[in-house]
Amino acid sequence: MRKMIKIVRGANRGAETGHMNRPVMYLDFDGVLNAFPNTGIVNYSDVGHVELVPDPDGYRTDLYSAKRAFPLDKTAVIDFGRRGFHELHWSDELAGKLYALARDGMLDLRWLSTWQPYTEMLGDRLGWDDSVVSSVFWHDPNTHEGRVMQKLDLIMNEIGKQRERVERGYDAHAIIWVDDGAINNRTITALIHTKLASPLLLISPDSRIGISRRQMELIYDFVNHPPTTPCVTYSCPWDEKGHVIGNSEEDDSVVMMD
Fold first, then answer.
1. pLDDT tens digits for range 13-51
2. CB burial string 170-204: b at 16+ within 10 A, e below
3. pTM, two decimal places
4. Residue 194 neighbours by CB under 8 Å, 6+ apart
5. pLDDT on residue 108
6. Which residues 6+ apart lie within 8 Å of 199 measured at CB?
7. How many CA atoms lie within 13 A of 39 on its CB side?
8. Which tens digits make up the pLDDT trace of 48-62?
9. Residue 255 predicted with pLDDT over 60
């Protein structure tokens, strides 16, 4: 398969000088910033405000509570003409926190999303300047070539780049990947069996609320105080605080997740 990976709009700025240890974050959009609550149970305006609500299994969940979810207080509609329109619902607070990390030079923030051809539109809606947040060309939007495996391929490619930095005598950048679907048992297995040069944080949000407050705290902690050794830390909807599931120095430390 022909590789589609290409970094655009300044994603490599400051690669050798300045903010030497700032992590590189690859960010999905749908299910990560653009949330999809179960509207049969809650309204968009309820997210981040209600405490306990029944879930589809009949139990009560605090998923949409203020302690776990950011409020979905922003809405926009993207009109694709004959292709229809797409309604967006996101948290201004959450988007602002991520953008501030990138704007202040703490994070090299890059879109890695099926919204690839339209990330400039997303940036306009979110108030993100594309001189601060860059995009990645990782699949062909017309033929869909690369959509199945290419996200993982790109993360693997970034891990390889960080190994090369170490070989050239530079500090390696930590890596953060946030995606609600592409981070799964298959991709996790591949990543924890890969030789790392820097810590890797995997965030798999619950698409009903996107990145949770606990997961945002984990991102802050990882950016400001990354692990001192190369390892894989994983956060998912049932373990938002995350834990180390693989250490490149100890192959037998691998933990599989259901």
1. 444 434 457 999 999 999 999 999 998 899 999 999 999
2. eebbbbbbbbbebbeeebbeebbebebbbbbbbbb
3. 0.87
4. 156, 159, 248
5. 97
6. 174, 175, 222, 226, 227, 229, 230, 231, 232, 233
7. 7
8. 999 999 887 778 999
9. no
Domain spans of the chain, in order of start: 6-36+90-253
List of residues 6+ apart from 184 with CB closer than 8 A: 204
Residue 85's Cβ-count burial label (10 Å; 0-12, 13-18, 19+) is exposed
Residue 94 has pLDDT above 90, yes or no: yes
Pick the CATH number of 6-36+90-253 from 2.60.40, 3.40.50, 3.30.310, 2.120.10: 3.40.50
74 three-state secondary structure: strand
Distances (CA, A) of 195 to 122, 247, 254: 34, 9, 13
